[in-house]
Specification:
- The structure holds two protein chains of two kinds.
- By secondary structure, chain A is an alpha/beta fold.
- Chain A is 32% helix and 21% strand.
- Chain A has an eight-stranded mixed β-sheet with strand order 6-7-8-3-9-10-12-11, with helices on both faces. Chain A has a four-stranded antiparallel β-sheet with strand order 2-1-4-5, with helices on one face.
- Chain A is globular.
- By secondary structure, chain B is of the alpha/beta class.
- Chain B has a domain of 142 residues: P-loop containing nucleotide triphosphate hydrolases (Rossmann fold), CATH 3.40.50.
- Helices cover 32% and strands 15% of the residues of chain B.
- Chain B is built from ten helices and eleven strands.
- The chains are: A alpha/beta, B alpha/beta.
Chain lengths: 354, 302
Amino acid sequence: MTAFLEMANVSKVFSAGIIRRQHTVAVDDVTMTIDEQSPSILAVAGESGSGKTTLARLLLGVIPPSSGEVIYRGQPVDDLSREQRRTYLREIQPIFQDPFESYNPFYKVDHVLTVPAQKFQLAATKQETTRLIHEALDMVGLQPAETLGRFPHQLSGGQRQRVMVARAMLLRPRLIVADEPVSMVDASLRATILESIRRMKQELGISVVYITHDLTTAYQIADNILVMYKGSVVEAGSVEQVIRDPKHPYTQLLVSSIPQPDPSLPWGAEGEIAGDPESMEVAATGCKFVDRCPAAFEPCAGQRPLLFHEHLSRAAACFQYDKSPALEGQNLDVVFEPQLTSQAAGGSEGPAAN
Amino acid sequence: MKAVDGVSFDLRPGERLGLVGESGSGKSTMALALMRLHKPPARIAGGKVLLDGVGDVMKLDDDGLRRIRLDRLALVPQGAMNSLNPVMRIRDQLADGIRTHKPGDSRDDLAERIQAQLARVGLDAEVGGKFPHELSGGMKQRVAIAIGTSLSPSVIIADEPTSALDVVVQRQVMETLRSVQEELGAAVLIVGHDMGLMAQIADRMGVMYAGKLVELAPVHDLFTNPQHPYTRLLIESVPTLMAKRALASIPGAPPTLINVPPGCPFHPRCPSAFEPCDSEVPLPTAQNGRVVSCHLYPGEAA
């Protein structure tokens, strides 16, 4: 058995400046597998500048990694033949944040549905294409009669985003990478879109990588989560573990900062260190969060913490948990929930070892 | 079309009043109209805004209006990135408003005031010498608060002050706004769409739908015992970290303001709609310190 999509020690470094060259590590050594047999929704959470969108672009093959490899069905994405790359591009579909920018305003919305259907030769006849398009629109709760034949500006933001979900679904992908799909949609419509993403997993067996800054929706729809801070994975595991009982001080800060719709609940964490995360420099050595961490102690400034396997379905990159073993090969698969059963049977090498 | 239709409320000294609604509900239009900052073709067809010691803001002439803006009534705009002048240092942008209202101040007084103002919102003095592009989103929003409150206004209108910020920064900026407001004893009107944020920051809260204020209540009462069906559904549709459940949404879509349904504007989407709802506009009724506009609650007219 070969894994569907793997990231093996993937890093991405952006460099800028000519005289004083600056390097920004947008994604720092991520290893994980997206499995085909057990579809799941993985949330990638973090603030702006955490590297979550870069991670999405690496999965989509839009940018190459600086080191490490993205492996599609056992083969590095760089080495895919033309034919294989075509399948790869069909099997992994993106949904972007802004439902305005994804459309060409001169074409009717049908365009975004018919063109991919033709390009990837999904159907032999026109009737068949139309049937597939209607099916996809039904799936996201849109009436084909009220949607097709219109121009993008005639639809609401929520409708436009749902057409984008339908477009992704139409291609029968194995993985959907959704980058902040609901952050620009009104609150009352968010639920509908998230619900159709959840149905993709349940009814069509499509895995989803859900990139978001919103831990609440992540908790609601995802099975597993990976929390990033300045390019590094700080905590990963099942959403129940990571969000309900966060262990890394950064995750704790994030969770406690979410304003809960209940005036009697507190807002904010104790012992927080003031500081503007957006303008803070990252130390060259040591934990990237050390300057803001209320729990920092002496090893934190000296070296980068590994991901420690603190709980069956969670790992945290924090020295408070260094009594637990480090994750083998820093591979996140072990802590993600659906893989747990095969993990227990297959030993530490995981299901990919075949 | 009416973007805001017959809304009445009072804002008490030192209180934080939240105003929520979906996009197109008229909440921002209302906030801008309070300061008469609406742009043509929008006009104010009627109504009064009474400000303590000033009278009706709607009746002021241009000069009178200029004098109370910033000094008495201040705005912290949405998306500070777009409200700051990109080619002016922060210090000069702060000085601009102060100088206009206090032309007699000496240079030293002005410099001191700017320092104090930056410190008040938690920024270092050196930020004054920077340009907006050198600051992070959270810092820019703090600058916007510093400018808005530079003359110690009695009313601060904050229009979605943190909508583009990450959660941690959002909370920090909100806490700054709260501390400045408490220090000044000013009243704040916070306009937004995030129910969670309102629950944490507001004392009282108003809910707008299709240009009308459908419910106004102390924040605790509103969340524990919402009266208007729209308020109830709005609260239920907010995902929380408490329990995993099917994500709820309000059936249907908000009306466009060009085509507001007759009677109660919410009746086509309302699970409790009954016979008078599609024909009679519900009037606001007052009960136990709250105001509701819904036929389910026939009470005394507010």
